Amino acid sequence: MQREYRELLDSTIGHLQLLKSAGARHVAVSQETIAALSAPVLPTATRLRPIEPPISSPVKVVETATIPAAMRTPKATNDSKSTALAALRERVLPCIQCAHLASSRTQVVFGVGDPAAQLMFVGEAPGADEDEKGEPFIGKAGQLLTKIILAMGLSRENVYIANILKCRPDTPGQSAGNRKPTAAEMATCKPYLLEQIQIIQPRALVALGATAIDGLLGKTEGISKLRGHWQEFAGIPLMPTYHPAYLLRNQALSEKRKVWEDMLLVMGKLEMPISEKQHNFFLRA
Q1: HSE (CB half, 13 Å, CA atoms) of 50?
Q2: What is the pTM of this model?
Q3: Domain containing 179 — which CATH number?
């Protein structure tokens, strides 16, 4: 069997296992796909090589010296994951499965960060700022999340950030504010997130808030009980913690410390260096 075909087959099997572990029981497959899968595998020599597209704009380079060694990913791996994520993004952007969300959104908020990130943050849904700009976590809560990531010794460029829902939940009759995604909305959009996770293959996930935990794990015990305790999602360690918006509402030092303790556990799981200063964040003198 050709090496390329084996790699494609292994990737497909891994994706199906991920869907199964997340509760999926059926996968829709078109007749065209079935026909393609039934076609014989051509020898490598007879295949046409894709034409490399020209570089039309400068590539932003992240200085690897600032990235902890445990978080670095080979460039070849990063490139292949970038291509896969770009293809998925093209499928997600025109999505109209939730007609009421498609009609009220400004744009789909796909996700942002390193396609080969070792750490992935998952929130619940875009807000007004995210809907306008097309990027997750850029409002006040997102700015706080960025500060947390920087305090870990990382940046938004070397983690990945996404939401359960790719569209802002509609708020008919409201001029401002957000609402919690419904179970049906999350179930409809969740397969896109599953594909993102399958492509990125992070070593750890962080679920931000109770809604993200409900959407990922179906657990409703309450974030205060779940935070600080490792869970598992599709074989990946998952740390539940408070949503940054909660810390904006409750700025007690004790609550900030709880979130930071969760991040210290994540850093330990990823074998990242932790300084004495980081250990002592939000501890009273």
Answers
A1: 4
A2: 0.75
A3: 3.40.470.10
